[in-house]
Amino acid sequence: MANDGRETVITGIGLVSCLGEGADAHWDGLSAGSLIVDESTYAPYPVHPLAPIELDRQIAKKGDQRQMEPWQRIGTYAAGLALDSAGAKGKAELLERMDMIVAAGGGERDLTVDETILAGLRTAEDADTFLNTRLMTDLRPTLMLAQLANLLAGNISIVHGVIGSSRTFMGEEGAGIDALRIALARIRAGQSDIALVGGAFNTERKDSIIQYDFGSYLKGRYRPVWQRGPEGGLVFGSLGAFLVLEAREHADKRDAAPMARLSAVLSRRSSRRPGDVTASLEASWQDLAGRLVSDGLALISGATGAEPATAEERAFLAAHPEVPVRATGSYIGHALEPQFVMNVALAALAVNRGTLFSPGDPSVERPMQGPLKQVAVTGIGHWRGEGLGLVDAA
Amino acid sequence: MASNRDKQGRPVVAVTGMGIVTSLGAGKSDNWQKLTAGQSGIRAISRFGTDGLKTKIAGTVDFVPVDPRSAPELSERIAVLAAEEAIGQAEIGSRGDFPGPLFLAVPPVELEWPQRRALAEASSANDTVGYDALLRASQDERFRAYRERFMFCSVGDRLADRLGTKGSPISLSTACASGASAIQLGVEAIRRGEADAALCIGTDGSVYPESLIRFSLLSALSTSNDPPQGAAKPFSKNRDGFVMAEGAGALVLESLEAAQARGATVLGVIEGCGEMADSFHRTRSSPDGKPIIGCIRRALDDAGLAPDEIDYVNPHGTGTSENDRMEYLGMSTVFGERAKELPVSSNKSMVGHTLSAAGAVEAVFTLLTLEHQRLPPTINYNVPDPAIPLDVVPNRARDARVRRALSNSFGFGGQNVSLVMAREPA
């Protein structure tokens, strides 16, 4: 940590979730403790549905919108908001040099096609031939492009013109943590001047819930993440989150106002034996020790509600009772890849305003006294990946 | 003695270990022998029935037993084979303890039809099998293994466990450029001084019905099923698409300084990486070739080289009408008149298109080309395309003096990555 290289700031933020779009909607929603949960459409799985957005405002061409599945539209939209907020939208010279790291899963399926084929397979004489024939006729040829992980980045290039570089990291929560870590390391080392980093997730689809239903998903009535107990689970939320990261000297040169400073992103991988998550967080916390402020520090937790990860994070937090905590997942839900980026963005909004939004669940969260100067951000994957970020006032 | 720093003052990045698996076989020795003999690994698909398909061939890796079969399972298995060969050659770390990070190019994963059918059968639904029924069935304990297997991070996580790489493994998906992106990230980490060594793997074991049909529906695949070995015809006038294939390539990258300090044999040097995304279309290149041209030029700039200093090109060379035409436009623009004489041979004519693995597989072949000073051929080159006047090293391997080579990887979604490799440190 001795040599950090170039100072890196956040100059653009683009957010959409169940709370709405943009910084103010998120700030207001979190401050008010707004709870937007749909417990019926996907029952017994509660979800936080995306607030309505006017796609035309960020994705001008209907043709482009049609070429995307919802997760790509959400992400392309949020990326546009981030570019707007950074004052980079439409600036070809800047966008040609702008690097991009997207954290993505993808793979949205055509549920009707799947259901029809599964029904037919039951009576098909030759299952292989039946499957081949039906897929050849029933799949939309362009569906693959709406499924591929890297086609969110591809759509951002097409719609917004970001072409400096394009990298997509896959792998649930860890992908978002590493996307920010690598983008930050590249800027610090002078390998990059400006980067668009983020991702998107659409929860309003049953094919995705299946993947995470094998023991990780909360069923029945919604509860805040800290109250889901030993049988807890995650609750998905549709959201998109993008940040524009920039070397401070680069931001200064183009008169872009920094909203916050991204001071550190650490990621770890443990095998999740009992106690691993607590130890992993504590080790990262110690790595940051020299740079944590004694007054004005808070923590935004990315706790998912999935166990045992959330209980272990809680044990870590209990060892640092002086730090006020906020778990945003209770309000925006969990979105895997972009979750950490979303929480770093919310941390940036908080330090930019110099105050923390109101506490939720009083068993863990309490009001913060005095001005906010610094926010630590945890990102504990529901199965793998542990991250810790640090955001300071610009 | 060569400097440990490049022209820009950054640590020189050496390759000290390589491993490879393709439809031709496992290991560098077997692959190189067959590749330079002009043998094809493309064959009729036997893994599943092909009735009802237009394309019935692929470069599958059938010699690695996998049960139960799935794309992530096979991708992981062949990645392990390639990685262990590379680490063994580098003689770095100890077994299960690789002293650096993992950058992994891996195909996107999802439940496949055998799993979906198992859920449907367990759902005991009647004639209609809705997703609600699948969701109910999925809660059965016996399907728990699906959860980990089909998470996007699972191949990387298991490789990190087995190989003992350090830190959080990064799983990359930049379509058919993924393997090159993995190498690029490893190079950058070493140049930043973050790591002395990095393990970069590209792997792809995803020949299954739906993956093949997806490419087929985009008219990207060759339908020249008979004989399978003749299907992949890069740069030929009668080329009719690429052939899907499986494989894995692994490289141990090290800072030259660290490699020399421990007395490692340097197999080659990654001198430069270039990248430029294409904003024109989801599957087609910008007609002016600007992104491909920019990508190659950025790689040369990164290496601090003039175009004249490249002696050989390992192209993306898929054998689709579009790719080969646009790649020629890129090369003829960057290399000018010299493009006519510069040897350019496509490994894909023999091993097919290994998709997520291609950039890593072809980096290994490019480094073997440098090591052996012998150019593998482009086979099936019987009808030259007058619009692509390149020296494709037609049909027969030949010896050549090659100091530096360029390897191109392009993918859907506007992904373009070029790597510059040299035999020896400058």
Notes on the protein architecture:
- The complex is a heterodimer of chains A (394) and B (426).
- Chain A has 394 residues and is of the alpha/beta class.
- In chain A, strands 1, 2, 3, 4, 5, 6, 7, 8, 9, 10 and 11 form an 11-stranded mixed β-sheet that branches.
- In chain A, strand 1 and strand 2 form a beta hairpin.
- In chain A, helix 3 packs across helix 8, helix 5 runs antiparallel to helix 6 and helix 12 crosses helix 13.
- Chain B folds into 2 domains: 362 residues, Peroxisomal Thiolase, Chain A, domain 1 (3-Layer(aba) Sandwich); 35 residues, no CATH class.
- Chain B is built from 13 helices and 14 strands.
- Classes of the chains: A alpha/beta (394), B alpha+beta (426).
- Chains A and B meet through helix 5, helix 6, helix 7, helix 8 and strand 4 of A and helix 3, helix 4, helix 5, helix 6 and strand 6 of B.
- Strand 4 of chain A pairs antiparallel with strand 6 of chain B, so a sheet runs across the interface.
Shape of chain A: globular
The proportion of strand residues of chain B reads 15-25%
State the domain count of chain B.
Answer: 2
Mean pLDDT of chain A: 95
Short characterization:
Chain A is of the alpha/beta class and 394 residues long. Chain A has helices spanning 22-32, 62-66, 70-85, 92-97, 111-121, 127-138, 143-147, 151-160, 172-188, 206-212, 248-253, 276-287, 309-318, 329-332, 339-353; strands at 8-17, 20-21, 99-103, 167-170, 194-201, 239-247, 260-268, 297-301, 325-327, 374-380, 386-393. Chain A is built from 15 helices and 11 strands.
Notable traits:
heterodimer, A: alpha/beta, Peroxisomal Thiolase, Chain A, domain 1, eleven-stranded mixed sheet, 11 strands, B: alpha+beta, 2 domains, two-stranded antiparallel sheet, 13 helices, globular
